[in-house]
Design a protein that fits this description.
8 strands; three-stranded mixed β-sheet; 4 helices; alpha+beta; three-stranded antiparallel β-sheet; Nucleotide Exchange Factor Grpe, Chain A, domain 2
């Protein structure tokens, strides 16, 4: 029964205080609580103590990634890439085969053109040389021909054959200045006296030939150094 104080109010019954000792704390109540992640529908749901829900990547729920993967068929993409790679390989092979066939065709045409050009050039030469051989044999059969005259005649006809094909002899008039591009000095008749001396042709030793300005073989000449006053064309 409760006792009354001086005011007449009944006093509350006296309760036993808490037992002495450290306050009770449930550690698991705070440290082992599950973190909360937003669900796809906007509500919160607990996650496991190991981390995010299974399948979650970069904070996105697994259900969201599942919906993305269902809209993109990666196997189909792989198949498309395989088909593209195969088509490119086939096209590359076709181009390579066409290139090789084109090279073969060009080589064949070049060879045919070379043969045709060679025949075109050789036929008239062969006819003229055959006629020259006939003439030499005819003159030898007479046994009255001068051998020196026959040799000169043969040389003249051979030069005519060369001229028919545009091949000309290189001029070597005595007294003219040596052209190192067209003349080769094989004999020098006099030493060089000064830097003003000019190397001039004395005589031709061997014929030289050129075709349209291209030197096939330079003419071999004998030459000598002459002073400027010794130039036959010098006005003094």
């Amino acid at each position: 029964m409760s006792s009354a104080d001086s005011t007449g109010w009944a006093a509350d019954p006296v309760r036993d205080p808490a037992p002495a000792g450290p306050a009770r704390t449930d550690v698991g109540e705070f440290t082992e609580c599950d973190p909360v992640y937003p669900d796809v529908d906007g509500t919160d749901r607990a996650a496991s103590r190991e981390g995010a829900p299974t399948g979650e990547v970069s904070g996105r729920p697994a259900a969201a990634w599942s919906s993305v993967s269902s809209t993109v068929d990666f196997s189909e993409l792989h198949l498309r890439f395989d088909r593209m790679e195969s088509a490119m390989a086939t096209a590359s092979g076709v181009v390579e085969r066409n290139y090789e066939q084109s090279l073969i065709a060009l080589r064949d045409r070049a060879a045919a053109a070379e043969v045709g050009m060679t025949q075109t050039l050789l036929r008239p030469i062969a006819r003229q040389l055959a006629a020259l051989i006939d003439r030499v044999e005819l003159e030898q059969g007479r046994r009255q021909v001068d051998p020196w005259a026959l040799s000169a005649s043969v040389v003249d006809e051979l030069h005519d054959i060369l001229e028919d094909f545009g091949i000309e002899t290189i001029e070597c008039p005595p007294g003219s200045e040596v052209d190192k591009a067209r003349h080769r000095v094989v004999t020098s008749r006099s030493p060089r006296g000064s830097s003003d001396d000019t190397l001039r042709i004395v005589e031709r030793v061997r014929h030289g030939y050129e075709l349209s300005g291209y030197v096939i073989r330079p003419a071999e000449v004998a030459a000598e150094w002459t002073p400027e006053w010794g130039d036959p064309t010098y006005p003094g």
